[in-house]
Structures are given as structure tokens and as C-alpha cells.
Write a structure and sequence with these properties.
Length: 310
Amino acid sequence: MSYPKVTLVVVPHECFQYTEESLESIYKYTNIPFKLIYIDGYSPKKVRQYIETKSQEKGFRLIRTDKYVSSNQARNIALKYVDTEYVVFLNNDVLVTAGWLNKLMHCSQETNASVVSPVCLQLTSEKPRVHSAGGTLEFQYKDGSLDLFDRRLFIKKSFEQVQPLLKRHPTQIVDLGCVLVRTAIFSQIGNFDESLMNFAQDIDFSLSVFAAGGTIYLEPESIVNYLKTTELRLSDIPYYLLIWNYVWKCKSIHHFQDKWGLAKNAKFIADALQELNYSISLPFQPLKELIKPFYDNQDSGINPRVFKGS
């Protein structure tokens, strides 16, 4: 058996309810040797037990934190243990498909790319739609103020319609939900920025790679599926609320502005604020009637211990 050239790192994104589907897809559809590091970011009891059992069965490294962590914090925890030429970062709400890793590896080897992104689809009740397929990042000055324009290709378009148009090509942006990276690039760009807790993590990483002289490619023959959170289990609410909380959001936005010199009134910032506000409200619609009694009962209260993820 050949020594693995790649380590897969699975990190929490915004909930834990897709943990089993995601991990099972990795072992079902990955047919080349790999190491796996799983960062269990203080998941609920049933999820924790599943991951522990799977770790013993498959022999992967399991690291459980004693509190909730952001995705970038989890990636940095895992990076300390990566000793392979390549590392793939996967969110715990991503399903891989047949041949996904082979195609990413071949693309990096054939193009010498520092980073390779698959096409990421969002599964819907109808036909799959594009969630991420590369795009462009462009800084522009207007009236002396710096703005950043993020243009994503084919986003929300039917994959069936755009698939013939997708070709392997250099791109300027990745989705950190799934990305292959040459591990050596981290000696140039440093770790993931933990001050970006719920905002622009993928854009910051892409800009950092380019600033270090690296290259990014899209490999359309590698396909993964993102399971968007539309409803939340009760056990996932504390983590989801933390990940998308207003304080983290403001701190992350201000840090990104300072880091890349964007104007406070940049359109990029305004658009991102609107999108984040939508993210926090959407999954709670089906829970409205369920939690209504708590608001109706003036004597009810929230036990702060629930926010420890138990």
C-alpha cells in the first residue's frame, strides 16, 4: 500500500446534522490512499458518539474541542498535524462524489496549481444548482475609495445547463467548503485568519494565495455537493446562533476591511451584510411554532449551559 500524499481535514461549518452523511460519502467515494483528521467542534452527544465509533473503525485522527470553534479555528488546529504534500479541507455539510479526489490531485499535478477547487453543487428538491464554480476578485478605486468586486460564475444556475460550459481553468476564488491545497503554501501565507469568524474566509484565503504568488484552478470534473441548512435540529441551534452571531459578524467585517484596506462604504461590505442577515433568519422559519411557547411564557428562561453544546 502506497503512503498517502493527501490528508483530508473535516471541520464544522454551521451545524452537525449532516455529519454522518458527509463522512460516509468520503469513505464510499474516495479510492486513493488518504489520511483523515476530523475536528469535532463540540458536537452534540449522539453525533460525538458516531464520530468516535467511526474513528475507531477507520483509524483516523479525531480531535474534539471542549468548546465550539469557527471553521478557520478548526482548520488551524488540524494543520499542526498535517504531514502530507497535499491537504483537503472539507466542511461537515459537504458530500463528495465518485472520483472527486483523484480529479483534484491530477489537476494540481498537471498544472502545478497551489490550490484546486471542485465544482460545488447545492442539492435542491429539483435539479442540482451551482453553489461554487470559481470566479473573479477585483480591487477597484472609485472616488479614492477601495472596493472589492466578487463575481462568482454560474451561481444558482442549473448544473445540467451550465455543465458543458465548465472547463478546467485558472480562477481567483475558492469555496472553503471543499478545496485541495499544496501544504507548502502555508509556509508563505501562514495559518487561516481566525479573526474572520463568519465572513469572507474563502476570499481572504484566495487573496492570500495570490499575494504569495500562488495559483488557483477550477477542476470541473471533480464534483461535491453542499447540503444547505434550511431547517435546524434543536441540538444545532446553539452552534448555529454562535457562528452567525452579530458580534462575530461585525468584528469579522471590520477586520477584513482593515486587512485589505477597503472603504467603510464599500459595496462589497454592504452586499455581504445583507447576505449574512438572510443566513441567520432562514432556517428558523420551520421552528417558529415550536419555540413560540417559550416566548409566550414570561417565566421561562434559557439555560446558559445549553450553549456549551451538551
